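Folding problem:
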Amino acid sequence: MKVAWFECTATIDDVVQGSGWYYISCGGCNSKAVKGSTSLICNNKKCVKIEVTGVAQYLTRISVYDKSEQAVFVILGDAGKELTGKHAAELVDNYFETNEGIGVDACVPVPQALLDTIGLTRKFIVKVSDHNLTGKTQTITVTKILPPEAPLPASSDGISKTGGDKSGPSSGFEDAVVDRARKTPEILESDETKHSKSG
């Protein structure tokens, strides 16, 4: 399976709701943990953890757009912290602390820290694989979110310029990502020893 990484600039216009915004992972390998009869069990057959400590990790879908296209990005793990400045576990813990008496199986609503990202423009590093192009949902996985660029000094005409405008694609970032992934899958091959699998 070929995997390619691309950089694109997009604006967040919604946090997709209706499904969970996080998952419970194995504290050792970050794979999804599931409830066993008496404890959590790691889904990763390679994981050697016997006692699994569950850790909330981001699994958030956001709707983004550029000048001409719209797409859904999936934010996983550390990319969520790069976006909100907070770990998913912290947000989940805060919810349960604020809502004492609520059961541990309660559905945690999308936190304000994620909703506050609506309207922000960021530079995303996205991963595209065969799964992204042929799966039922055809979403694009975000592996890193870069902080906003500091504004450049004002030009001689007195108009301030920002670094973000020059880096965004002029049109169709989703199509461009998909086309580049289809035409040049050899750009970056997946190397499991260098890139840990996030889910």
Observations:
- The chain has a mean pLDDT of 77.
- The longest strand covers residues 3-15.
- Residues 88-98 form the longest helix (11 residues).
- The CA atoms of residues 46 and 193 lie 14 Å apart.
